[in-house]
Amino acid sequence: MVWMDAAEPGEFLMGEAVAGRVLMRGMANGDASEAACDPLRPPEAVPKLCVEGLAKRYGSVDALLPTDLTVATGEFLTVLGPSGSGKTTLLHLICGLAEPTAGRLLIDGVDHTATPVHRRQIGVVFQNYALFPHLTVEENVAFPLQMRKLGRAELHTKVARALEMVSLRGLAGRFPRELSGGQQQRVALARCFVFEPALILMDEPLGALDRKLREAMQIEVKRLHRESGATIIFVTHDQEEALALSDRICLMNQARVEQIGTPREIYEAPSSIFVAEFIGISNVLRGRVESAGVLTTDDGAFEIPSGASSLAQPGQEAALIVRPEHLEIVPGGGLVTGRIVESVFGGAETRFLITLPSGAVITARRSGGEAELHVGETVELRWRADRARLIRC
Fold this sequence. Notes:
Number of helices: 8
Oligomer: single chain
Largest sheet: 7 strands, mixed
Strand order of the largest sheet: 1-8-9-10-5-11-12
Radius of gyration: 24 Å
């Protein structure tokens, strides 16, 4: 955890963070910036964070390709991607833990590209809570305010309010070793929110928690964001976490931005096969557009969604993306036939892995109340054309 904008130059303290609404666009091809980082704009139009052509190289390796990013005040953006995609590098560049190779960074319209880490007024929450073991909960939360030399009365008021926000008022006198993992994480969040940073950056802060506690803390983080109006950038590799928390998701791959949008946009309208396969489960039927409105694959010819013909011309390779919930197992009249090779019971639904004639394996789901199917059975499958998504390969 890192405290920034400490009261005295050179102070660099372990702490936490939050950030806001973000619109992000990859600049790998040198596109012109569409985000207005003009400091002369009216104050209400100035984004909380604006990045222009931000890039980072380590020797011959591009850790982050030139990227443009604007973050509006008060939104929750999740930066999502596999290991090595550049998401943590981006976070480190924003908070000042790494120096950019190129580009600039503005906070509230002010250029902070060369501003030292402790002067950026940014809080960062890391996966390890970094609580001071010799300080009580109250003293941990008060620490950043003490570094800013707040008066005693104001300090106690702010600490009490922060502890109330995270439901820890009754544990103010305990030490970190006397708390559960979830309680320690809430202390870390309170310590970050208490000094009201311009941005809060969270680098996989829930990664060390078990699943049940992680889901509970996701709800806690959403509540804190809603009640505080803070601007939060949240980094994770967990797609379910991104879908659950975010106003927007920025999906990164190979040091660049692959797609940005709301969780629904990312899930229902992926811009590439990578996005479709990374976010949720997707059935990918690859083939070639042979004529208007038809994609021919090794498993048959399938109708292209209306309005998607312009995405791929006859002769071009493309793929249909069909989510498991849109795939129906029917007794007859299906679009394709397959054999069940595995079934996974999940309580409310059962997931089936089905091998098609080409050898491709797709996934279908069925609710618990429907007729039971068994491994080895041959089934027919269909889907509505408007439920599929055409993507050029």
